[in-house]
Amino acid sequence: MTKYSSSYPQQLNQTFIFEGNPEGGAWSPYIFDSTNSSNNPARDNPYVLGHIAPQWNDYGANASAYLEAYYSWRDGLPALADKQWGGKISRGQYNAIFETLQASAPAQNLDRKIKSASSTILAYDFNLSLPSTTGTIKDFSGNAYDATTNCTMTSSSLQIHPGCSLTTPLLSKGQDYTLSFSVKPSSPALGPIFTGTDSTLQSSNTSLDLVSGGYAYALNYSLPVGEWTQAKLVRSGNKTFFSADGGMEMEFLVRVGVNGERFEWGPMAINAPVQTIGGGAWEGEISEVRLYDYAS
Predict the structure, then answer these.
(1) pLDDT digit string (tens) for 203-236?
(2) Would you state the CATH architecture of domain 120-292?
(3) Nearest C-alpha neighbor of 288 from the set 165, 126, 118
(4) Backbone angles phi, psi at 114, to 5 degrees
(5) What global pTM score does this model have?
(6) Where are the domains of the chain?
(7) Dihedral sign, CA of 237, 243, 249, 251?
């Protein structure tokens, strides 16, 4: 069950998959009861046609980011498929090869990984004295993820205003990450600061929002207009945080209703938006943009 359940887990259970046979060994589609073998038919029973594993999202699209569903399946689905088809791979064998095979899956990057020579994925310093070609912002991380922009620079920052933006060669960064930057809004206008394929970080005079799947997850916090803030957007596992000037981490959460009886707060796992800076109604200054492949 995606996001929350008092009865069902939020991820596939590898212990059940590899040790779910009450007589010892791995689970198989004929096993309906993992604790009492007398409740299970024979393995070759012709009425056992196979197995379906549903993932429910009872709380709707506004309670989850799209790729949260992927992470519920990620580590266990290949193991479950092996058992559904009568495979006999052991847990040790599976864990030894899984990450290698996962990284080699063709034509997909659902982990939103970014190749990097070090833990620093990109580093932009906006300064007129830095060597650059017109409209090109050099990446000092060593990865050569240089950006392009039609915005102007001051002696130490990029000036964002409606009609201008900065574009990187990247799209989105999955877990874990730290996106740090200095920001100075010049107005309270609602608009995107960072945008990517999976999410947008936007600011207004009343809140700071992470938008994913068309839904905004808001913090009761707004960036002070006319002041510099040292900001960090951090994803650690299935949680996403924002902090300002080294202060307390504020977590992006979603409130879900349970059976019409009560509400529960659930964490949000939202990828870093790293494709575009600016490009909307938001205006202000940005400097010292850094993207790291760890949560800090």
Answers:
(1) 988 999 999 999 999 999 999 999 999 999 999 9
(2) Sandwich (2.60)
(3) 126
(4) -130, 130
(5) 0.91
(6) 14-103, 120-292
(7) negative
